[in-house]
Amino acid sequence: MTARNINTASNRAGTARGRRVGRTAAAGALLGTVTLLLAACGGTSDAGSQPGASSTPIRGGNLNFAVSVDRGCIDPQQVGNNDAIAVARQTVASLTSQDPETGQIVPWLAEKFEANKDATSFTFTLRSGATFADGTPIDAQSVKTNFEAIRALGAKATLGSTYLSDVSGITVKDPKTVVVDFAKPNAQFLQATSTFTLGLLSPASAKLSEADRCAGKFEGSGPFTVKSYTVDKEAVLQRRAGYSWPASTNSNKGEAYLDTVTFKIIPEAGNRTGSLQSGQIDATAAISAADIKLFDGNGFWKETRANPGVVYNLYSNESTPKLKETAVRQAISKAINREEITKTLLTEADRPAKGVLSHTTPFFKDFSDLLKFDPDGAKKLLDDAGWKPGADGIRAKNGQKLSFSVTYWQSPKEVLELVQQQLKAVGIDLQLKFTTIADVTAAQAKKDYDFSYGNLTRSDPDVLRTVFGGDTARGGNNLRSALPVDTTLGDQAAALDKDARQKLVDQAQEALIKDAHSIPLYELSTTISASDKVHDLKFEASSRLDFYDAWLSK
Q: pLDDT by residue (tens digit) across 522-535?
């Protein structure tokens, strides 16, 4: 489950500025009252830029791109981890797109869209001529079929099912017009329609088994199709003939420039570094922090963007007695030195958490004053709560040690090892349990854990409701406990006025941090490292990779 402003090459800057002016004007005419729902992404440009090569793209070639893990699924409506998303995103188009620089929602498959005054009803008018890879027209009925199929997937549609959880009806008005109605105001929905998880598959593909869809047997609506997929080895995408309905956020207006993109699964970090240095791969977003500087010049380039959404957190299981204690959770948060984590272990572009949301998320606000490193304050909280240091330095109360475990699958493990040391310094024992994604998911379902660890990427603050809200229809929260922010999170999702929504999002974040329901650590970022022959490999607004404009020089 696992988004920074981009420094673009000088040869693209003027073109990008021109496109941006046109897109903003067009979007303003389409969004009406819904323009109030979005705020500009925060933050400043991050390190890295692509080489200034010929402005004329060259068609052809295969781009070899390395990813680190394969979960055995590339269905865009079922995947949730970044490596699988990198593959799946290229195969589907969405109703809308989101400008990565402004946060504005702009047309894609829908040439026009509008919401009613209370954001309970959204009408999409589809563009003419777009088709699925099997030749079926992309029409209003196919949108209805897709959204109903996503809802039927339930929890297997990790993200999409939450975006559609409050749908009360989907109506086909005519072949080009579909209306999606919600039972209550839903300020987040337009942004949701820009995501890969609500990308459209052909109606026939929606009827396939979940396993067949995971195996890549689907037909999508995007610029690439699945040529082959071998689990734990590679996924090969090929250019789709006749594709000519890009989002207005892309510069390419016809078929993809690349013939194929081969995603190679290379689990070991050192092997990814060696493969890029030797030319066995052309690019990757999975170079270790220790090696990232190797690809800053010398025939390579790198570009980084912070993932919007909820930053990397320790999620406490508050149904357990010790973690029900607010003072214990607060002490854990105070004992963590977030600056040390980023400066010691991560890249120069990575940032310590300044709130529950990343700085590239619309409606971001800096809450770093509430996340200061304060080991003395942590010790006092624990002393006052009756947790006294034992002979081994670990605190205990009523014969029970202040010991926890964190169940995780992510890398680098060094982050949690450093947190482990920081907590030990105030008398808290944290044991690390590295396992598989499946085992982590199973442990959460059974409430058989103390802490889980992770983030969730989305370029909308409603991601807070997905992670911390208690609505069982949306999957419940990671904390296994009803939180006092449930009402606030629901209210922000219904707020149509930008200032009103900002206030509610701020209230929710502040409450989550003050009582340490959220224990933020650092912002996840994505860094593309690539050979100089790779051009225009870009980030979407959610820091997902976009290969549609990408091309290779000779």
A: 998 999 999 999 99
